[in-house]
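Sample intake — AgrB-like protein
Collected from: Neomoorella stamsii
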Amino acid sequence: MLSIHYLAQSSAAYLVARLPEGQNKPQVEVVAFGLEVALGASLQLIAFVAVAWYLGLLPEMMAALITMATYRLLAGGVHCSAYYRCLILSLLTLVLLASLGRWLASILGGSLMVGVVAVFAASLVIAWRRAPADTAAAPIINPVRRARLKKACYLWLVLWLAVVSLGYYLGWPGSSTLASSLMALVFQGFALTPPGFAVVGRADGLLKRLLPLDKKLEGRR
C-alpha cells in the first residue's frame, strides 16, 4: 500500500536532486514534511467534499470543517496517532456534525441564536481554562506564544459570533449551515478538555484495532 509519507519522501528526494548544483539546496526532510502536509490536507479535502456532495450535506459539512479547522489552528487539541485514522475519524465526525446541524436547526427554529450565544459563552470559558491545548508531540513551551494563542482564541470566538449572527439575520447561508458550525464549535471545545482527549484516544485505539494498517504503511516507508 502506497503511503503519503513514502510518496512525499520520494518526491522530495527527486525534486532536491533536480536542483542545479552549486545552489543552497534544502534538506530532503524539510521538503518531504511540507509535501506530506500538503498531500494529506488535499486528500482530506477531496474526501470530505466528495462524501458531503454524495450525502447532500455539502454546505453543512463545509461549515463544520471550516469552523473546526480554523479554531483548531489556534486552540490545539487531541490528535490521532496515524493519518488514515485521522481521515476516517474526521470524516465520520463531520458527517455527524452536519446531520446534527440539520436536526438542531429544525428543532430550534427562530431560537437558534439562543444556542449560539450559549455555546459562545461556554467556549470562552473553555478557551480561558484549556486553550491552547498542546500534546506531547507538539508541546507549547514558550509562555509568550501560549498567551498569544489564547488571545487569538478569544478573538476568533468573537469573530465567529459576529459572522454567525450576521448570517442568521441576513438569512444566509441557511440555519442548518449555521447550526452545523455551532455543533462543530461544541465538538472542538470538547476536544480541548480531558474527557475530549480520552474519547478521541479511545476512538483512535478502536480504529487501530479494526484497521491495523500501521505495519503495512510502515513497510512502504
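Post-analysis note: The chain has a mean pLDDT of 87.
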